[in-house]
Amino acid sequence: MLADSRVHLGLTLDLPADFEPEETEEETAALGRMLAGLHVGSVVEPRASEGEPSGAKGLQTVIGALTVIVSGTKESLGTVLDAIRSWVSLSASRSVVVEIDGDRLEVTGVTVQEMSRLIDLFIERHARELEG
Predict the structure, then answer these.
(1) Distance CA 103, CA 2 (A)
(2) What is the pLDDT of residues 41-63, one digit of tens each?
(3) Where are the extended beta strands (E) located within 1-132?
């Protein structure tokens, strides 16, 4: 494993359509705090770069999105994905799309066994990036 091996996970929260932007921001922040507490990488809020009006003072945070930079091992990636699965399981109306280099995994309220199998396959596909 390389000392600086890192994988960037793009997370997009899929929440009920009737959620207000503030509710989506709160849910996004709650997930971000939980993932930051795992201490397996860093969590950042992506910034909008397209469509910004000229003269805008700063880039706006993309509502309902996070980037998790996982450093270390396949186990670290598994820890993050297990935490996302646990967070999703708290409410039937939640799901999170996880993306690594265009490969997407939708973490939804499917059974624990089904989601565990999908997560294991996703981790195996990206283990080389972490270990190599």
Answers:
(1) 22
(2) 899 988 765 544 434 444 455 67
(3) 6-14, 41-44, 65-71, 95-100, 103-107
